[in-house]
Amino acid sequence: MSRDFILHRVRTAVGRRAAQAPAAPPEVELRVPELPLERRIAMFSAALEKLGGSTLVAASAEEARASAGRLLAGRRAVASNVPLLAELGLTALEGVQSGFSTALELRQALERADVGMTGADYALADTGSLVLLSSAFEPRLISLLPPIHLAVVSRDRLLTNLDELVKVLPDPAALTSALVIITGPSRTADIEQILVRGVHGPREVHVLLV
Amino acid sequence: MSSSPLVQIRQTLADPGLQSAIYSSTGRLVEKRRQAISEGDPAEFERWREQAHQIKRHTLENLDYYLELLEKRLTARGVQVVWAKDGGEVADFILRLAREKNARLIVKSKSMTTEEINLTERLEEAGIEAVETDLGEYIVQLAGERPSHIVAPALHKTRYQIGDLFHERLGVERETVPEKQTLIARRTLREKFLAADIGITGANFLVAEAGLAVVVENEGNARLSSSLPRVHIVIAGIEKVIPRTADLAIFLKLLGRSATGQPLTVYTSLLGGPRRPGETDGPEEVHLVLLDNGRTRVLADRAKRQSLYCIRCGACLNHCPVYRKIGGHSYPWVYSGPIGAIITPQFHGILEQGWLPYASSLCGACAEVCPVKIDIPQILLDLRWETVKAKVREDTNRLERWAFGVWAWVMCRPRIYELASLMSSAITTSEGDGWLKSVPALFNLGPIRNWLSQRDLPPPPAKTFRQLWRERAGGGAR
Ligand code: SF4
Hints:
The structure holds two protein chains of two kinds.
Chain A lengths: L1 H13 L22 H14 L3 E4 L3 H12 L4 E3 L3 H5 L8 E2 L5 H10 L2 E5 L2 E3 L4 E5 L14 E6 L4 E2 L2 H7 L9 E5 L4 E2 L7 E2 L6 E6 L1
Parallel strand pairs in A: 1-12, 2-3, 2-4, 4-7, 5-8, 7-12
Antiparallel strand pairs in A: 5-6, 6-9, 10-11
Chain B lengths: L4 H10 L1 H24 L2 H20 L1 H14 L2 E6 L2 H15 L3 E4 L3 H5 L2 H7 L3 E4 L2 H8 L16 H12 L7 H18 L2 E4 L3 E3 L4 E6 L3 H7 L3 E7 L3 E2 L2 H16 L6 E5 L13 E7 L3 H5 L15 H4 L4 H4 L10 H12 L16 H5 L6 H36 L2 H15 L17 H8 L11 H8 L6
Parallel strand pairs in B: 1-10, 2-3, 2-4, 4-7, 5-8, 7-10
Antiparallel strand pairs in B: 5-6, 6-9
Helix pairs in contact in B: 2-12, 3-12, 16-18
The site of iron/sulfur cluster has 14 residues of chain B, from helix 14.
């Protein structure tokens, strides 16, 4: 069997016996600077803007609805089933469909949609990233198939950086089958190193911090 | 492997369009990297490099442990782990699975590991459509070429050539604006994604303790490949393992900056298995193929083991004065540039492409930028030394083979044997002070002297065995 063959070759190559416990791996130095929320929000929106995305800050549910409404303006949107979106009244906005529970329905709606609206479990201030854990409420495809992605994040989920994320979530697969870190709109530079946005994923990413 | 590197090199050097395409693209990548590092804290970047080196070293020294741990964690979450000695075993597995699932169309996202084993060709030969979905890979596949850079596969092509290619192969208008070309690819490939039965991706990292396959990309095609089809297959070399999720914090920051000058690439997927109850999308089945294909051989060499630390960022290619002139297609294997020069001979045998370790001025630029601090120039020197040794061994072998050939020929012919032994007695008995070395000048010639420098024999006796036999038997025999 190839498994045993390969493992045997590995052991011979490095001079180990089966089931021999290794020494502890070298320490990783994680750095999480203490920054006030205002500072983190400023960092987040600056980083996202640099990538071609935008950040909207809303102090109340009303403001959130108004901001999202301006962005949707006559477009067709599909929203995920995370409670936050419904609580803020965003799923009730005009043109927004949500509540899909089968793969086929969801896919068909997404193929027609201009905007995919999702929550985000975390956001990372220093890189302008969103962190989404797929679940029964949050499918993978809403943030991926439509040309515009609108993510709604509660500001207490705004972490400082990637180091903090791996500290908070050392075992992501215990919580989700897929975690994705989204840092700006989909892009490529495969043709002459010229930047183009919106290859297979969305060309626009907007984040609503509530 | 392509046959004549020299022809390809001459062609590349003589093609001004190609020269400027390679030079300007690698130049932009160099600049983006430099900017990303100087915007942050360069001293911190150095610390990450050192940590990454140590983590890789530790993991490879205990590789069997981490592979088994990874397998255990993934299996517990419903992932099937498959081990493959080589490309043939990978293809066999996928074809078996494809037959079982009645699959006709496979979407693939960029992966050097699958390039290494020519997976796409193998699948297409078996009658399965396998479509590359990374824009650069898609262009290269349409053109019937292979990638010329490990991060930017179509780096050797201009947008005008791509316009012609799309026009010819896809029947669309000739477009020379990259944005429009990208849109054409998006539309064509979206159809494929929606119809695909199986998605194949590589993995940049495998996290043992947490049971994760980590895939890094900018376009979103790897996310689509791992979300839309019912079956997702991850193919990764066994050296891709790292111990903990926390290690990712180091490696992801290094990879993005070194490859394309991004603090983080656009999409980083941490995949932990098939979709769970209640989820509306995601694959129903996930398989991980762990590939050896020569890696354990490299692992066995203590000094050169670090060649396996590589995270395929491409920085050493972009900074290499040789790569920037001769381009990726001049190298015999899918891995080009300095990293290609050190791993090709180790995977394929030292004499297979003996010129590779010499295709370097040993300027050291590669080692200076390598995010995992592989000492590429030192490995090049070691390989040169081994090449020389292997060549000498081969030459000596040739002479020995010839000498033993003559000996065998003589031994099969009694008359000639008798004559030869008479002759050797005649020329060596004159001074016979014991050993062959001290006698006639005939033996002090060229290769014979070399051979005798480490060996000696007593001289042949004055009378041969046959002569003595004949005397004793009273001259009766024969
Ligand atoms: S050898 Fe180092 S610089 Fe070159 S591709 Fe690998 S990791 Fe990057």
